[in-house]
User: Fold these one by one.
Assistant:
Number 1:
Amino acid sequence: MDDYDNIIIGAGHNGLICATYLAQKGHSVLLLESSSHVGGLAATREFHPGYKVSVAHSLSHFSETVASELNLSAHGFNPSGETLETIGLNLQGTPVVLSGDQISGVSTDDAEKYSEYLAVLKRFAKVLKPFWLKTMPRIGHNTVSDLMTFGHLGLNLRMLGKKDMGEFMRVATLPARDLMDENFDNDLLKAVLSWDGLVGSKMAPRSPNATVLNMLYRMSGKDHGAHSLPEGGIESLINALKMAAVSAGVEIQTNAAVSRIIVDGDENGLKATGVELADGRKISAIRVISSADPKRTFLNLVGAKNLEIEFTNRINRLRCDGYVAKLHLALSDLPMFTGVEKPCGRMIIAPEMDAIEFAFDHAKYGEYSDSPVMEILLPSVKDSTLAPKGCHVLSAHVMYIPHSLKTGWTDHAKEALYQTLVQTLERYAPGITKHIVHGELMTPADLEQTFNVTGGHWHHTELAMDQMLMMRPTYEAGQYSSPVKGLYLCGAGSHPGGGLMGGPGHNAAKEILRAEKKR
Amino acid sequence: MMNSQTESSDPFAGERLKESPFHPRQAALNLRNAWSSWNGYKFADYYYDEEYEYFCVRNSCATYDICPMQKYIISGVDAEAMLDRMVTRDITKLKENRVTYVCWCTDEGRLIDDGTIFKLGTDKFLLTCGSPSLAWLRKSAFGFNQMKIEDASDTIAGLSFQGPTTCEVLKRMGLEGIDQLKPFCIAHFSFAGSEDKPLMVSRTGFTGDLGYELWINPSLALSFWDALYAAGEDYGIQPYGEAATNMARLEAGFIMPGMEFNEALKTIHYHYDQTPFELSLDWLVDFKKPHFNGRTALMSARDTGSEYTLIKLDIEGNKPAEESFLYADEGCIKEIGYVTSAMWSPVVKANIALAMVKTEAIKDSIWAEIYYTKELRHHSKVAKCKVQSKPFWAPDRARATPPAAF
């Protein structure tokens, strides 16, 4: 008799979501988390006494379906009605400000073009939206549901009409640079609009690949990709997910690091039968579901000896190096940014497209640029509980900072980067330096260490064409099941990918329930 | 390398064929200069006459240079687990100083290659195979950290010594107890006064007859050759080449890459490679083993059944059915397969062939459309084929221990 129906490894948002769906269907679920708290990269932590922040600092595409199906509002999650402005900081003059469909700081031409551009992208995003929450068809297995998914996608594309469909096919893998140059004149606007297609990936404006698809993925959110902060911040979402899980009957154990997935074999082949914890405890289950990244899951927890040779090598070749560092500053006062009345939006330091491209050039060779680009948020402006009274927290995603710095991430290298970042901020927010009470810089290597994410990658593995959809993380593991019977994936390394979205957790649970019904 | 004719000024230095450690002796005996190549080595098709060499293998004794064969030493605590996951057979059961025939497949269960594994010690194995396999071995070794792979292809000299009088010759060479060595067993012997037993002998081969494979350090290759040929002089010892090997192995029913199977990693067209089941190697696939590469795919291939199966044919007449199409009817209307290797077998006095035939058609009549040439004129005939289940040539003497004295 197994101890549980399901053991889920990792209590990030996808682990919590998958657990809740299964528990709601009467499954017993044990959710194991290696750290002392749930939430993964979205967990809110105190990084300096009195100052709190989460690595993921805003919402752009959290699934409305998941929120309503898990009744998260009953557990205190209230998505904000208003979105955050996206502000392209400009030392030379007026910033570019995007607020929903509104735009300012650009020419009339660009402003008109922006409405058209947004309208087209919204139509494209609508076509793809249903598929982020669907299991992708398994290549070569022409089951009815697989064919239906293909058919549905084809039909949706066809329904776009000839012109839009052609345009979709054309731009889907276009470099951001080309898309922007075709549409706009203002270079700052181009940089700001590219940002959401690039951040979190190893892609720059001139990289052909999945930039546009990444944008469309984020545009699947309720505000078409505009960012927002729920009431009570990111913490309220994680708390709601935790409450939903607990009330559905999920048993959560924190400080419970899994050291391996137990795989047993007999003449019927191999089967995952449970997990062994770092403290030596063994727990059995009908199935083990991992929200850890694919490399960690397969190479560290399952082990190559239990996998097939080509599959193992495909997993090993997954591109998992993160290129986003995280800067957290505890500030004694609200900083003021040049040209910005109140820093309540999402501010981007990327004065032109080339600034992003050049920052990337360094990272390609294991270095970082002296002029990194970044996205800045002061979450304490909306949520005063994150800092002591009158004080503030600055949270910044910094690109492109390589996971594997050529010279190694020594204390000296980190300090040098930290100083570069503070100096950059000082130029945009004069006087900010003197308000810094404490600073924390997390390189991708630090994110890997702290959150057990290979490469410190936001999406666990690069969200690129060859690692998307039914190829995510790789074929044979693209439908949440894996080559090892009883082992499933539910993390960002599975379709549709990472970010605070919830798709992998939702899809994995549906897939597991479907497989159970079939038996 | 010991390339006598290459000099540093040679603009084709890197392109010249390597010479095996036995080359000086073999070159002297290669009266017809019939060289081809194998894995970059200069390699004899035949030395004097392929049929003569074949008869030496069947009636006395002969040597075949297996230096070009690929040899890998896989050692370390994880070596056994790594190999056991790679090949379809259970090698955890393999005892020390024993050899086993194995094959290995892709994740999709398609045959990559076959070969032999020698268990040299608790954590030390020698894998021999026809094609370079280091890339696949390295892929297979990923995740097994306590082991290493050494390509010993150029550092172990090998000579296959085959034929009914081989044991006698080795006895005369002073290999004490060689007559007690059982098939697929390994023994070590001193040589040239050396006490550290540099000569390894395995009772293995590719002829289906009594025979041994002799393994030695390349530096001792020539003196070893001389000693062997001195002991074998009265037994008509003779080197044999690829052509005679191909005849002998076909009689024994052994498969060849490029003939019976297309190595999966070199196959471009979908399913132009084979599963072990198609090649009638079912006995090599051990489903009692919970895991090995390609297991899931092979399980479903086994349950589905193979479209084609490799079978042995005894064909009427004496015209070899080389490259023949096979039909279900004498009128050659319904095509059911093709011949992969064929010959007139002198030793069994039969017209034999290996053939890939649609599995469903095997139990019914099979006809071969044979094309042959008689003094420049082309002829064709249709010959009835009989399926044979046992190897064409499998004499008791191949397995007898001790082998008969001569």
Number 2:
Amino acid sequence: MAEYSALSLLANAFKGNKDWKPAWRKPDPKASYDVIIIGGGGHGLATAYYLAKEHGITNVAVLEKGWLGSGNVGRNTTAVRSNYLLPANTRFYEHSMKLWENLSHELNYNVMFSQRGCLNLAHTPAQFDDYARRGNAMRHLGVDAELMTPAEIKRLIPALDISNDARFPVVGGLMQRRAGTARHDAVAWGYARGADRRGVDIVENCEVTGFLRDGDRITGVTTSRGDVRAKKVAVAVAGSTGRVMQLAGVETMPMESHVLQAFVTESLKPFIDTVVTFGMGHFYMSQSDKGGLVYGGDIDGYNSYAQRGNLPIVDEVMSEMLALFPGLARVRMLRSWGGVCDMSMDGSPIITIGPLPGMYLNCGWCYGGFKATPASGWCFAWTIAKDQPHDFNAPFTLDRFHRGLVIDDKGQGANPRLH
Amino acid sequence: MLITCPYCGPRDVIEFTYQGDGNRERPDPASQNFEAWNAYVYDRLNPAGDHNEIWQHSGGCRAHLRVVRNTLTHEISSVAFVRGDHSSAARRKAEDKP
């Protein structure tokens, strides 16, 4: 039975909107659960939702240090795509794309998923060849991809400078039409409501301060709101993975935490109706439904847990924006912010059992975790429920680095700040 | 963020290149201890707080620097030449003094 429908909206409008239930309860943590999920971000909430829905495991707590959606799920630039080169990534992100395509219906919550396309610009013939290779790899696995000429690109994005006078002239692009954007807050709220209605306890303002153990085995957590025991403890804390794993006595991880900044301008009239990325640096931009241009670039490039960055990257991102869109020179920037990214050593994520008995780990999303939210939760729930990974996440192990099985989509090597 | 280069003084971070985690220990080149090599290449302490790291003043004197920087606040508590007082930059600086 849908909670939000044309009828329920109309009925509540007549009753002064007094009868809406809160989207999720505010329970106190119980003494024990079947599964504890540390981290109430998109991935943690999606995991709880799919545990309850797909596997019937509803005695679950999601423990969130701050308020729901205060981390990266509310800080990203909302792009969703599955245009990867390597099969492990392509299959996983395409699974995510298919879940996105039905997500609003599935959750009965409008996540405003808009398949407006994602266009990667090529600025040299070699780069265009490289995009053709990636597009072919995608199509080989059933993902949509098409090459575009500068004339077609100009028709799609009239504001783009594709002239030969541009600093980096555009020679073509790789388009994924099914890619797009989604409203990131709604994704968190939709999964939270879906999990809560199935019996999951979402406990906010509950910081995990340590782990309870029986020998090597993890048997629960100590929190700012008391001890909570569980048969299975799942960690989905993105940029804070290192800190949480150190509480469990795991000193080193194959990742570094870095800060990524994002920006939004004042509202403009419709300017660009797709997601566009720059090929001669790192820059991506889309326009929100409110009209603000949402954009970002590279991570700052040094280890950081501060949710704010420094000015050199601001300068670089603005320069790249103006290289593509000279017409934006006088648009005012409204806000900028930062989020902490868990940069793995090969640029690919980790969804796995372990590394300690009783523990499950979901991390290493670099700065691309938002688009993965549905598949990450879906695969993590499968792994927790069945104590074995699904085919989609089987390659994303923690020990792949020491076993020589890295999944390095960009071919950058073990340098987390370059992924 | 300003980094106070021991040779050039306080300079904007844009003049520096981050060389990464300074806690890693490179095994002896002849070592066949694969675990030690794997740990050197892949494993990181990634602390929230003071972090030992290597920066190069690539837009200045080009010296490699050992920096202790807080990853929660970006505050820098110490900067030294990687090779201590034996680096050529430090020697030159010492010779400059009357």
